[in-house]
Amino acid sequence: MGETVLPAVEETSPKAEEPPICGLNEPHTTPNHRQLQPTPSEEGNTPPTLRPPHTLTAEEVAETLGVDIDHGLPHSEAESRLQLYGPNKVEGAEGLSVWKILLRQMSNSLTFVLIIVMGISFGINDYIEGAVISAVIILNIVVGFWQDYRAEKTIESLKKLTAPEATVTRAGTMDIKVRAVDLVPGDVVQLSVGSIVPADLRLIDGVNAYTNEAFLTGESAPVEKTPWKTFDDEDLAIGDRTNLAFSGSEVSSGRCRGVVVATGMNTEVGKIATMLRQKVDAGPQSANVFVRFLKRVVSGTKTILGLVGTPLQITLSKFALLLFALAILLAIIVFSASKFQIGDEVLIYAICVAVSVIPESLIAVLTITIAVGGKAMAKANVVTRVQSAIEAVGGVTNICSDKTGTLTQGRMVAKTAIIHGAGTLTIDTITDPHNPTTGRVSLDNEPLNLDQFRPSTVVTRFLRTLALCNNSKIKPPSDSPDDSANEKKNDLDHTASGDDRDTDASTIDTVSQPPTAIMGGVSTAPWTAFGDPTEIAVHILASRFNMGKEELLSKLNIHLATEFSFDSKVKKMTVVYKNNHTGVMDVYTKGATEFMVPALDIPDQERNEILQAAEGMANQGLRLLCIAHKQLPAGTNISEREEVEANLNYLGLVAIYDPPRLETKGAVRQCKIAGITVHMLTGDHPGTAKQIAKDVDIIDDRTPDSAIMVAKEFDRMSDEQVDAMDPLPLVIARCSPTTKVKMVQALHRRGRFCVMTGDGVNDSPALKQANVGMAMGSGSDVAKDAAEMILTDDNFASIVKAVEEGRRLFDNIQKFLLHLLISNISQVILLLIGLSFKDTTNHSVFPLSPIEILWVNLITSSFLAIGLGLEESQKDSMHRPPHDTNKGVFTKELIIDKFAYGTTMGALCLASFAIVVYAGPNTQGLGHGCNEGWNPSCDTVFRARATTFATITLLLLVTAWEVKHFHRSLFNMYPNTTVFETLYGNRFLFFAVVAGFVLLFPILYIPGVNRHVFRHEGIGWEWGVAVGAVAIYVAVLEAWKAGKRMRKRDGKVDVEGG
């Protein structure tokens, strides 16, 4: 975790005033018994087959590749191999062009239906209706295009990980600079601090070499390189292949030399690029050309019709196709009613009925609602790259999360210190790992007031050792950035010291921004730290007691006599400080417990006790350092490391780990309440992963052993074996990219809807395969480009906020879908039964004109639907299980409600038209030619049409408030809330209702607009009919909801939604 940028770090020289570093060891090498002559490549030959290089010695690799380790490849051979292997670069992939984004907006069934209706409208010279539908189509496309406009550069960003130059040995000449793109297998490459590894290497030798592979393996600590080792397991996890260096990783300390074993797309980074280029869920290719062509046709058709994507996209596309079929059926019904004598009148009526069944504004409303949801998510630190993912995340059933920096804080801290003869120090509730003023310190479980605490001699010596045997630097917020930059440059030579390293990629320069609120009274400005993460952690522990290195050196009359830096063979670091007055020397040593215990001057029983205590803490996933000290008389010879580090006095142990974020445990529990399963997939060690999973409540003591696995075991299982597991593993350690992809595929086979989080290049294939990929804001560009969402604060709790926002959006989509469909159903009922209204020429009369229908669908309903899309989240949204993604938004309750409400509305509109035509005073009947325009015989029809228009408008306005909740009464929707507060709570919806009511009057009464555009007339007494219809409608809906509440109380129905 934590890979952000791979800096090109300069190696700096030690300052002149510093004492010499003693005890450096020669590189680990194996004698070369014979000279290996490279085998020249011949044109047309194939590359040699190389066994997994971590299972071979460097000499065996060199022999296979035909290279002399000491002389390198001849220039001619290097050029020949470059032709054979190709350039050392990751191949690009097609980016998503502007035209493809535009095509994506058009690739949905509803847009195609509208295009067909638009074409027919223009074909029969109905230019007003055709123009309005054209405007709707353009609006839908433009809004969607604007929201989805993102450049896709997934593979291109991989190129940022490659080094521009490499230092090689060729033709017996060392330190030759060549372009990294020209490297070939067999090249011998030299690496030093700050170098970016240009290709995959089998290391030959090295001195204290550590590389940062967090971007690739997810391993939080810089990895110690062991060139002299070979491994028997060909399937060893990438992070455990410590005799290899991987392309794109950075040398954080030491130096090493290696032979290139893979370049370009054959490197581990290249393999990930290959996985990214593959289509999601791509199955095996058939050998039959016709079958492959047929699959492409089917795939292309699905894409064009919008039948791929999120569950909502697929559901709505299928729904649009159903509506299209229904529109054709309704048109046929209209034609059959006229006995298939299809003139202009009949064709216009058929189009009018077809238009009434299509929610023209659905795409625009959905896009705007999702865009508003995207802004809400951004405020919760979740930036959305693909807008459709906002709704999709609401249906998540499983979250697969990385550990370091997401569940944890991504910084190492000292958790426990066992001080010999003093007790046990514990530190918890740390909000900023680099700030020594945060957190709570206890001694033997008794909280300490550090301002009043006076440490004993033993504690003082222990803390002094932590601070003085340390090359890190801690800077408070008051220090200027310029000073910090200078410290970074001066500290690079000291990054080799320290023990097991376990933190994020920022091993040289880290700026600590508190992930959560800082304790009251403490500065919220960032503290900065430089050096090895392990050293930073123990240095901060000492600084909590005002015993930082700089403070001690300013108070004590001492100077550094010599330093034995950390060495991978002895796993220790020692410094010797000399008293300027007496000449007495203090030896301060820290190191790995198993290497320190033999050097301690203690009885065997105490040695065993120390090892047992260390093993117990190691099993809890903690990294351990053993601390020791001794004094030497003035004049003692300190040139021999072995003598200086012998017979040390044991001071204690300090345990270090990457602590969970304070809010993670609560977020995981909230997921469990919401029916969401959380999995931890990490590159870290099993012990660490298991302990952190326990700390954040992913697992507990009742969790079966099968739920905790090492990736190697999981990867070896067949799909059938994985599918037979119950449950799937909750924790997988030492994960590789293929492990994470395999987990996502296993979840898909179970019909689960999953979120995958990640930040490194290694996470990007799984991010792409997951239903919703979430990349970390501090992560690699590759991960961000492969994901649909980005967590700007790298916080697991933000994922839970995103899920909650997704559920709010899902609920609101159901509400406005119900509203739109009620309108469409009522219009279909009105127009179909309206076929029976025949004028004197035996033509059916429109109860609503085409423009009235479009106004209701596009203006009145659209703004009401947008208002419903802005409804606040229901209080129980995270207390119910995820919705069924197979059913989607069209639940049983929604389907029943839309027909019940739509039928009621349609019947009332039909009754309104009939009352004015047949029961009103001074009725003139249905006249003639009233569909084309006004004439004296059309007065009654125009007034009846206006009454119907007013009725359906008022009913839709009331419906917008009624569907705010699917089963609660409008008059008692929320506890302790008046009706007005309920209506006014959603300001946008409230004013959309007011605007819809006010706009009725100019449409009905402005001369010219009413008769010539809308084809209706101003009304008077007819308002009583419309208001009466509203009263009946509200009564029916309230009775319907009351019945649902009664059935719910009786347990006969599970009320969903709203």
From TrEMBL:
- Would I find Magnesium among this entry's keywords? yes
Name the InterPro entries on file. Answer: ATPase_P-typ_cation-transptr_C, ATPase_P-typ_cation-transptr_N, ATPase_P-typ_cyto_dom_N, ATPase_P-typ_P_site, ATPase_P-typ_TM_dom_sf, ATPase_P-typ_transduc_dom_A_sf, ATPase_P-type_domA, HAD-like_sf
What stretches pass through the bilayer?
Answer: 106-124, 130-149, 319-340, 346-372, 816-837, 849-870, 899-920, 940-963, 984-1006, 1018-1040
Protein's GO biological process: potassium ion transport
Going by the UniProt record, its keywords in alphabetical order are: ATP-binding, Cell membrane, Ion transport, Magnesium, Membrane, Metal-binding, Nucleotide-binding, Phosphoprotein, Potassium, Potassium transport, Sodium, Sodium transport, Translocase, Transmembrane, Transmembrane helix, Transport
Q: Which GO terms describe its cellular component?
A: plasma membrane
Enzyme Commission numbers on file? 7.2.2.3
Which coarse location class describes where this protein primarily resides? membrane
Required cofactor names: Mg(2+)
For this protein, what reaction is catalysed? Answer: K(+)(in) + ATP + H2O = K(+)(out) + ADP + phosphate + H(+); Na(+)(in) + ATP + H2O = Na(+)(out) + ADP + phosphate + H(+)
The annotated region (Disordered) lies at: 1-53, 473-517
- Where composition is biased (Basic and acidic residues), the residues are 485-504
Xref: Gene3D superfamilies: Calcium-transporting ATPase, cytoplasmic domain N (3.40.1110.10), Calcium-transporting ATPase, cytoplasmic transduction domain A (2.70.150.10), Calcium-transporting ATPase, transmembrane domain (1.20.1110.10)
Q: Which SUPFAM superfamilies match?
A: Calcium ATPase, transduction domain A, Calcium ATPase, transmembrane domain M, HAD-like, Metal cation-transporting ATPase, ATP-binding domain N
Q: Where in the cell is it found?
A: Cell membrane
Stated membrane topology is:
Multi-pass membrane protein
Q: Where is the Cation-transporting P-type ATPase N-terminal domain?
A: 52-126
Regions of compositional bias (Polar residues) in chain numbering: 27-44, 505-515
Q: Which domain of life is it from?
A: Eukaryota
Q: Could you tell me one molecular function GO term of this UniProt entry?
A: P-type sodium transporter activity
Q: Which family does it belong to?
A: Belongs to the cation transport ATPase (P-type) (TC 3.A.3) family. Type IID subfamily.
Please give the PANTHER family that the UniProt record associates with this protein.
Answer: CALCIUM-TRANSPORTING ATPASE
Specify the protein name: P-type Na(+) transporter
Source organism lineage? Answer: Eukaryota, Fungi, Dikarya, Ascomycota, Pezizomycotina
